[in-house]
């Protein structure tokens, strides 16, 4: 910005007044002549300045114009407050969906531990509730985008929420698939196939909890921690895979059980991947970047 300001000072047709200097952005107004406005507008557009236009230019006396501008400011502030309220409602709904998914995860493995077939069967219906939540949040996001004109930060929040609920819904799908799988397997003791299963179940649960909390609380550092936690889950998946290969070589009589156990580990790994996505969407929500590539 300093170099840009020095260049502007050398231009006779531009007068720029900074109003707010942030860590990453500069807000301000610029003035130019009628003859040069096309060139100057193009310059500022190329720098991603967002123009705020007055829909109906004020007229009349100074007092009339001032009153009209004040009325427009009040209307704009009311619109901003409305967007803020709807974004808070969206945040609460994403939080509720994330809590519902995490509760389902806990219930699923509690039912497996207790060998509760009835509870396991009920979980399949649990997945339908998650899908309903997803559709409701998607509707809210689309409504916000079509009725309002969110600024860049709010637009990132809405866009990220659309992605996050997709990841949460897919986690729900994987949990539902595991519920059906455990029923077919006869409510197995997973640690019989690999001693790494209990740790993988705990680590995956911790990752999705941390990622969801990071997104809802807008905690970028926590989002990065969730992303990095996936390395441990990948390591545990490889350990389980090696244990299952050894078991098949030693005694192939339970080949079907080993395959089902491997599928369970793969479901857990995929749930971890969706947790990573949620952590990345938190970083996007704050910076507009994914994997250091600027998207918005």
Q: What would you call the shape? A: elongated
Largest sheet: 2 strands, antiparallel
Cα radius of gyration in angstroms = 27 Å
Number of helices: 8
Strand content: 5-15%
Number of strands: 4
Task: Name the average pLDDT.
Answer: 88
**What structural category arises from helix and sheet content?**
mainly alpha
Low-confidence stretches: none
Q: What is the distance, rounded to the nearest whole angstrom, between the alpha carbons of the first and last residues?
A: 20 Å
Strand order of the largest sheet: 1-2
Order of helices and strands: HEEHHHHHHHEE
The protein's oligomeric status is single chain
Helix content: over 70%
List keywords for this structure.
mainly alpha; 75% helix; elongated
Task: Describe the 3D structure.
Strand 1 and strand 2 form a beta hairpin. With 296 residues, this protein is mainly alpha-helical. The strands form two sheets. It has a two-stranded antiparallel ribbon with strand order 1-2. A two-stranded antiparallel sheet has the order 3-4. Helix 3 runs antiparallel to helix 6. It has helices at residues 2-9, 37-46, 62-114, 117-147, 152-185, 197-217, 220-250, 255-287, and strands at 14-21, 26-32, 289-290, 293-294.
């Amino acid at each position: 910005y300093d170099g840009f300001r020095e260049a502007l000072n050398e231009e006779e047709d531009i007068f720029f007044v900074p109003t707010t200097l942030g860590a990453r952005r500069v807000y301000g107004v610029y003035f130019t002549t009628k003859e040069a406005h096309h060139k100057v507008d193009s310059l500022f557009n190329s720098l991603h300045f967002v123009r705020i236009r007055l829909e109906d230019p004020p007229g009349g006396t100074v007092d009339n114009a001032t009153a009209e501008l004040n009325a427009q400011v009040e209307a704009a502030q009311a619109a901003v407050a409305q967007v803020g309220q709807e974004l808070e409602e969206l945040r609460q709904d994403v939080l509720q969906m994330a809590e519902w998914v995490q509760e389902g995860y806990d219930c699923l493995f509690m039912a497996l531990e207790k060998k509760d077939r009835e509870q396991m069967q009920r979980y399949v219906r649990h997945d339908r509730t998650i899908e309903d939540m997803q559709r409701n949040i998607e509707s809210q996001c689309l409504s916000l985008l079509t009725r309002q004109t969110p600024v860049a930060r709010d637009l990132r929040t809405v866009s990220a929420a659309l992605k996050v609920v997709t990841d949460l819904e897919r986690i729900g799908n994987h949990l539902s698939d595991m519920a059906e799988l455990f029923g077919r397997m006869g409510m197995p003791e997973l640690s019989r196939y690999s001693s790494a299963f209990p740790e993988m179940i705990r680590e995956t649960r911790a990752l999705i909890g941390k990622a969801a909390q990071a997104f809802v609380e807008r905690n970028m550092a926590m989002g990065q921690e969730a992303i990095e936690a996936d390395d441990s889950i990948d390591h545990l998946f490889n350990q389980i895979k090696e244990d299952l290969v050894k078991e098949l070589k030693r005694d192939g009589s339970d080949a079907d059980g080993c395959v089902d156990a491997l599928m369970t580990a793969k479901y857990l790994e995929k749930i971890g991947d969706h947790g990573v996505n949620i952590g990345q969407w938190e970083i996007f929500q704050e910076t507009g970047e994914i994997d250091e590539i600027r998207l918005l």
